[in-house]
Amino acid sequence: xxxxxxxxxxxxxxxxxxxxxxxxxxxxxxxxxxxxxxxxxxxxxxxxxxxxxxxxxxxxxxxxxxxxxxxxxxxxxxxxxxxxxxxxxxxxxxxxxxxxxxxxxxxxxxxxxxxxxxxxxxxxxxxxxxxxxxxxxxxxxxxxxxxxxxxxxxxxxxxxxxxxxx
Length: 166
Fold this sequence. Notes:
The protein is mostly helical and about 170 residues long. It has a domain at about 15-30 and about 40-100 and about 145-165. It contains 5 helices and 2 strands; from the N terminus they run ααααββα. It has helices at about 5, 15-25, 35-60, 70-105, 125-165; strands at about 105-110, 115-120. It has a two-stranded antiparallel sheet. A hairpin with a 6-residue loop joins strand 1 (about 105-110) and strand 2. It starts with a helix and ends with a helix.
C-alpha cells in the first residue's frame, strides 16, 4: 500500500527527496559515511595511501627522500591529506544536499527539463517523516563527517606547525 503523500506527489520519482536519500545511502561512495567505525576509517586510510601515488613523486621532486626524508614525508603527508579533504568535502556536500531537500517544506523539481521547474509543497505527514529521517539518520552522519574534518584539520594544522618550526 502506497503512502497517500507519495500518491499525490507530482515530483518525478527520481527527484523525490526520500528516493534521493535512499539512492544516496545505497551508493558505493556515499555509503562510506554510514559504515561502522573501523571500515569508515579504513576507507580514508586507503584514500590517503593511494594519494601517495600522486603526491609522492611531487614530494620527491621537491625534497629528495635521500637528502630530506623528514621534509619529504611531511610534504607528502600534507599533500595526501588534501586529497582526503576533497573526498571528505564531496561526502559532506552530498549528504548536506539531501538533508536540505528532506528538511525543506517545499521541493523544487523539474518536470521535463531545466526550463520548467516547479515547486511542490509537502503535506504535513511527509514533512514529519522527512524530518525524522534527518534527525535520526542524516544528522549523525553529518556530525561524523564534521568530526572527521576536525580531526583532519588538527592533523594538517599540526603538520603545518611542524613545517614552520623547521
